[in-house]
Amino acid sequence: GSQHVATAVVEISKKFPEIRSAINIKYQPDLVVRAKRKGMKVISYDRKKESKNSKQKENSSISWGISSCLKSTKPDIIFHKGDMGKEPMIIIFGTNPEQVVKKILSIT
Asked: Please, which of 20, 35, 45, 108 could form a disulfide with 65 given CB 3.0 to 4.6 Å?
């Protein structure tokens, strides 16, 4: 797996320890809309609000983004629309890989 996805899982599991799996997929607005229509909890963060220090420190952007948008409700999806040099992305979370795959299949 990618270090970005692993970092996202570690960060979200600090607040929601049952989340142990995730996948990063290409950002497409229609996927976000479909997920919301399916009743999934979808949240996002704005990469433009990230501090310069966080942007420059290797592998801290994902941690910053995930922790900055977590509230009290466990998300199914966290996405961002990118920034200069940062690709937009959707991360789908679940308790296990099977659950993550089921969520992907339900929105594609």
From this structure: 45
How many angstroms separate the CA atoms of 108 and 26, rounded?
A: 12
pTM score: 0.85
Calpha distance 61→104 (Å, rounded): 24
Place of tokens 């996805």: 5
Query: Dihedral sign, CA of 97, 101, 103, 104?
Result: positive
